[in-house]
Amino acid sequence: MRFFLLLIPAVVPAATYHGVVKQILDTRCVGCHRDGEIAPIKFTTYAEVKPWSKAIRQAVIRKSMPPWHADPARSIPFHNDRSLTAKEIAAITEWVDGGALEGKSDASTGVVASASTATTKPDFVARIPGIEVPPKGTIEYTFLVTPTNFDRDMWISSAEWRIDQRSVVHHINAFIRPMGSSYVRDAPPGKPFVASVQSRRAKREDEREVDRRELLLGYEPGYRPMPWGEGRAKLLPKGADIVFEIHYTANGKAVVDNSELALFFAKQPPKERVFTISPADATFAIPAGANLHSSQTGAVTKRDVTLLSMQPHMHLRGKTYSIAVRYPDGLVESLIDVPRYDFRWQTTYFLREPKRLPKNTELKCLAQFDNSRNNPANPDPKQIVHWGDQSWEEMNICFMEVTFPASDDPDVVTLLGTTRPGTATR
Ligand code: HEC
């Protein structure tokens, strides 16, 4: 059977670092695994990668790396999905099993695009005025209020983080605080501030969530600028402030952080307004030792809206999170399922295809907590746990960005059942 023999290649080339693996690491890992970034190990050269090859094999098989927590089988597709394809995982394991060979370097590869797209001059910048981050210890959430002082409403067509000390910035959420809002009222403008629990919870009786604050943009490691799309913008009302909630993690050496949020304004009024709704449940009491305790929240749309992104938020006892919709015709669809929630990764999931939610669609957000000793992140399984700011307390917030015609009232949803508005601070 000479015919068949001819089809068998004489030598099967082994997968090498320069042949296949570098390309995968450059696009999927190096964004975090390089100098000045959040990951403690660099993966930019063969010499850096080789000693870690077994750990890399294990991490990609276990899917602990790259960090990505949505289960693709029970979630809709996301634009910023970091997970590896089966083919990429196979290529990496094959390379490690074959001895993690270097192979020949190709001079044309090796340039890694910078995470920043800082090319155009922003219209407004909210700046962190050099916050000193200590080398060790737990750092309290820090607030920073930046007044904007525009004498009319402005439309933000895009917003972009320019993070200075990426190795210590764990996450930042920027909020728009309209004039007269009760939210962290006592924070002195321009000065880093640790807000009291009372101040973070303060809310007037009749104050609508839309008049209190709106999530403008979140930052987390691995962040890439993500435009809302043509003709869409967020409203910065006249006289509003930008409020940062900053979470630093110490990284062994003292640094001074000067991160910035750059805002770009729309040249003409947008067609659609982008708005963040934030259903929350603050009524739960998680029993001591409970290994699966549920907390539900949600909303019903008062009008047709389009969903752009979702950001589930819990703390250290967070175990699973799922968001589903029930359409007016009764059809139920799972939007996202996070089977192993990890507090350290405050991921915003951007829908690959924005989803239209007709009036009277029910959004259901289910958080499940693990307060047992089997949860390695649990600070104390003997405590009954309630809503609170600190990571040893808990939260269930279901941030979702939706769009609707720009001139319409932003009060687009009825928040559901167990929500106790006003305690929903993060
Ligand atoms: C979004 C940022 C990010 C990306 C992308 C990322 N990592 Fe990591 N990686 C980290 C951080 C942070 C750590 C430190 C440990 C931790 O926080 O989990 C880490 C730790 C590791 C470790 C050592 C600890 C462990 O879990 O075994 C390995 C190995 C690793 N990463 C491999 C990879 C590989 C391979 C890729 C790409 C396929 C990748 N990482 C992509 C952030 C990232």
Detailed description of the structure:
The protein has 426 residues and is of the alpha+beta class. The chain has 3 domains: 13-97, no CATH class; 124-270, Copper type II, ascorbate-dependent monooxygenase, N-terminal domain (Jelly Rolls), CATH 2.60.120; 276-415, Sandwich (Jelly Rolls), CATH 2.60.120.230. Helices cover 12% and strands 30% of the residues. The chain has 7 helices and 19 strands. The chain has helices spanning 2-7, 17-28, 46-49, 53-62, 86-97, 197-201, 209-212, and strands at 124-127, 131-133, 142-147, 154-162, 169-177, 214-219, 232-236, 241-248, 255-257, 260-265, 272-277, 293-301, 305-313, 318-326, 332-338, 349-357, 362-369, 397-405, 413-415. The strands form 4 sheets. The chain has an 8-stranded mixed sheet, with no helix packed on it. The longest helix has 12 residues, at 17-28. The protein starts with a helix and ends in an 11-residue tail after the last strand. The model is unreliable at 109-117 and 418-426 (pLDDT under 50). Residues 28-29, 31-33, 38-41, 52, 55-56, 59-60, 64-67, 82, 84, 221-222 line the site of heme C.
Labels describing this entry:
five-stranded antiparallel sheet; Jelly Rolls; single chain; 426 residues; globular; eight-stranded mixed sheet; binds heme C; 3 domains; 7 helices; alpha+beta; 12% helix
The biggest beta sheet, please? Answer: 8 strands, mixed
Mean pLDDT: 89
| Class based on secondary structure composition and strand pairing | alpha+beta
DSSP summary, beta strand count: 19
Q: Into how many domains do the coordinates divide?
A: 3
Major sheet: order of its strands?
1-10-4-7-11-18-13-16
CATH topology of the largest domain: Jelly Rolls
Assigned CATH superfamily of the largest domain: Copper type II, ascorbate-dependent monooxygenase, N-terminal domain
Compressed to H and E, one letter per element, the order equals HHHHHEEEEEHHEEEEEEEEEEEEEE
Q: Which segments are poorly predicted (pLDDT under 50) over 5 or more consecutive residues?
A: 109-117, 418-426
- Strand composition percent: 25-35%
N/C terminus separation: 71 Å
Hetero compounds: heme C
